[in-house]
Request: fold
Amino acid sequence: MSTVEQARVILDPEKLGLPKRPSITGIKVDEYFSATGTGGQGLRVQVILGEDTTDDDITGDAVIEIKSAIRAALRSKGIEDFAYVFFAKRSELESSDEAE
Amino acid sequence: MYQDLLAQAKKLAKADARRPKQANLRRAISAAYYALFHFLIDQSCRNIIGTQHSQAPYRYVLGRAFAHSTMRAACESFSGGTLKQGAQKGLPPSFTVPPEIMDIADTFVALQEKRHSADYDLSERFGRSEVLADVREVEAVTKRIKSLPNSDEKKFFLACLWAWRTLASR
Reply:
């Protein structure tokens, strides 16, 4: 099983003990390709937020808590690749292809 | 400086209530990254030179010696909680990286990458939730580091932001 496939199994939002807000409806994992060319192996972890998420739900403390939980879960299973974590509602992901 | 950059990032992240413009979101990411970059340099220079107002010119001159790539390399190591052998050698066996330092190091690495995409990669699109998460994360990690007691681990991390390349290659 590849690292990405392992990470997909590990990062089950139901098992990570994530904060209640913002609500998280899914976590998608892919290989990360460095924008700068300086990064080593990495994982692109897309946290999908519920559509009911308000701007006020996205607090710094919650973001840190979510990222820490992801990082700890990966390390506990021996995955040391850097996790680049992204946050978006599904509607934002779907509209991201639209031209401005 | 970093407070002003963070305020600018917050303003840009919340601009355009109905449909956020990519230009504003991209500039918000860049401002958030530079807020963190200057915060870490300031903290490190205060650690090395001192915190007195009269010492500011020395801090500002020393601050010019910090390099994005060196800071990133240090942060990659500290964010993992275990340092490279060259840096770890000789440290007390009880040495551990405090979680607040792991968090800010992780934020720095991730945001440096994102800043690069925001400034140069037009194929990458950003949403408001993404940008708000970045800006608020920077605000939170800087607050946590400021309130973290000035332990040897903290002072060592701040010094490594400057000295990492040489130290890690020994």
